[in-house]
Specification:
By secondary structure, the chain is an alpha+beta fold. The relative contact order is 0.17. The protein has two domains: 4-202 and 382-386, Ribosomal Protein S5, domain 2 (2-Layer Sandwich); 207-378, 2-Layer Sandwich (Alpha-Beta Plaits), CATH 3.30.70.890. It contains eleven helices and twelve strands. Bound molecules: alpha-D-galactopyranose. The site of alpha-D-galactopyranose has 12 residues, from helix 5. Alpha-D-galactopyranose is lined by residues 33, 37-38, 40-41, 130, 172-173, 175-176, 339-340.
């Protein structure tokens, strides 16, 4: 299910701003991360889904050189030279995701110039739902279509990731871009970041996800995200010295070996790796649980994930902890922080019949703790598309 409203609004704003209808329009969804926190850049595996909110990107030809870009959400316009490899100044950081993508597409012989562009999103900013990846993927789909070119979907994901690394300063993995590209209607995506393969996983009909947003600030480039990535790499390098097989990333260490050897490596790196190695293990077990329809045990994995986020990876915060506890008390099958952490949203797994009541109960419990989250039902949705 793609967000037709945001697409119609983006087209109308583009037409109004530039005096001509866009010839190319693409749409890409945000995502929720269901299980497998911080495993992507450790060559691990994840469960995620694309959501029913996303970004729409419109293009029309201009008679002037350069790229004119309007961010319809904030009613701002900027211009840049698509040939320049430099990020734009911080006050137009929103444009860097687009500029980065347009720049790296040039490496694939996809060159655009003299275009007017508009983007509009329905993903709340800072909610940890990957609005930036949705923007990158929508940009790439639109630019490729405008230029009449096709490249591999994995390369589209990598281009988005490079834009994050080099133009936004966050050393993220590929989870967000994969989810936005490979999303499936009413299904999860099981991604393997070693092989770069994704598998659709059917969800039982009687469960849905809730997205609960306590509205706390979330900016990954300023968060300790990059430092956590370095700790994980340090743990992998030190474990590699202790076993007789190759540990190129935390994905490679056997769960039992990690348990036996974690006391022999740098304590902080070991603590961070405890969460990641546990997550990789839970995703693998989770595949079996979902195929058996064991939602109770799968839901418990979500709670377990949040617990090691809180205690070992330390990427939670008070508000997210309150939300997860409220979800438990309200009868959710499982709940955890979703995405990078240090703010953002929680995801909860619930039986569809209980969804409305659980949302209301979570909000009521949080109110007693002076937190005012919003809660909504997420419709797992298909991945990015070219609308026209
Ligand atoms: C952010 C990053 C992803 C991933 C998650 C944590 O969403 O962009 O690459 O690392 O955090 O799992």
């Amino acid at each position: 299910m793609y967000d037709e409203t945001v697409t119609a609004d983006a087209i109308a704003i583009h037409t109004d701003t530039y005096g001509t209808e866009p010839t190319t329009v693409a749409y890409a969804p945000g995502r929720i991360e269901v299980l497998g926190n911080h495993t992507d850049y450790n060559a691990g595996t994840t469960f995620s889904c694309a959501i029913n909110m996303g970004h729409c990107f419109c293009i029309s030809k201009s008679d002037k050189p350069g790229v004119r870009l309007t961010a319809a959400d904030i009613n701002a316009t900027t211009e840049f030279d698509p040939a320049s490899p430099e990020p734009l100044e911080k006050k137009v950081q929103w444009a860097n995701y687009v500029k980065g993508v347009i720049h790296y597409l040039r490496g694939f012989d996809v060159v655009v110039d003299g275009i007017d562009c508009t983007f509009l999103g329905s993903i709340p900013m800072g909610a940890g739902l990957s609005s930036s990846a949705a923007l990158e993927v929508a940009t790439a789909y639109a630019v490729l279509s405008y230029a009449g070119k096709e490249i591999d979907k994995i390369d589209i994901a990598k281009i988005g990731q490079r834009a994050e690394h080099e133009f936004a300063g966050c050393s993220c993995g590929l989870l967000d871009q994969f989810s936005s590209i490979y999303g499936v209607h009413h299904g999860l995506i099981h991604s393997d970041f070693r092989t770069l393969e994704t598998y659709p996983v059917k969800l039982p009909d009687d469960v849905v996800f809730l997205m609960i947003n306590p509205h706390v600030k979330h900016a990954l480039a300023e968060s300790p995200y990059n430092a956590r990535r370095l700790s994980c790499e340090k743990a992998a390098a030190q474990l590699n010295e202790l076993v007789d097989y190759e540990v190129g990333a935390l994905r490679d260490i056997k769960f039992e070996d990690f348990e036996a050897l974690k006391g022999q490596i740098d304590p902080e790196a070991a603590q961070r790796a405890t969460h990641v190695v546990g997550e990789i293990h839970r995703v693998e077990e989770g595949v079996k649980l979902l195929s058996e329809g064991n939602l109770k045990a799968f839901g418990q994995f979500l709670f377990d994930s949040h617990e090691t986020s809180r205690t070992a990876f330390e990427n939670s915060c008070e508000e997210l902890d309150v939300v997860v506890e409220a979800a438990r008390e309200a009868g959710a099958l499982g709940a955890r922080l979703s995405g990078g952490g240090w703010g953002g949203s929680c995801v909860a797994l619930v039986h569809a019949v209980d969804a409305e009541a659980i949302c209301a109960k979570i909000i009521e419990i949080c109110k007693t703790k002076h937190i005012a989250p919003t809660a909504e039902i997420i419709i797992p949705s298909a991945g990015a598309i070219v609308v026209k």
